[in-house]
Amino acid sequence: MNRRELIKNVSVGAVGFVAVSAFGPPACSVSKDKAVRYTVLAIGYLNDILPILSQIGGDSVAALISKAIPLLEKLKKALEENDFPEAGNFFDTVTATLGQVATALLQLPESAKRDVIIGILTLVQITMRTVSLFIESEVPPANIPQAVRRVAQPNAILKAFEASRF
Fold first, then answer.
1. For the segment 28-37, what is each residue's pLDDT rounded down to a tens digit?
2. Whole-prediction pTM value?
3. Could you identify which of 8, 68, 135, 139 might form a hypothetical disulfide with 97, taking C-beta atoms 3.0 to 4.6 angstroms apart as the criterion?
4. Residue range(s) defining the domain that contains residue 64
């Protein structure tokens, strides 16, 4: 797959994913199975980024991603076991790590490959916002970590959708 096809596929996937996530029926929550599946998608996306980073000298970013993947595995396990307070805690840690990844990624020299990585990381962030909606719908309000509350806000998902429109 060439760069243009990859960017097109990532963009179309992101827009479709965001549209379904943002404009689904408001009374329905994301099912546990979907939250687990979206977490697995995020893990796969991050694994896809690692070889590209090695091509552009992004070792520091790769180290952060290698730190995020096991955290996502723990989040997935907590979701599978219906341990929502623990899932919220892992979500908080994962999103903090992904914030560090984004900051480090922007320090790399501009290139087409960096842009591809940014596109894939955008998919991860949108995916995690959808997972946060599930966690927020299942955890008592007093136990929801601040990071989950912050990213679960519908206007953040709508902004991501608008930013990715053609």
1. 455 788 899 9
2. 0.74
3. 68
4. 30-164
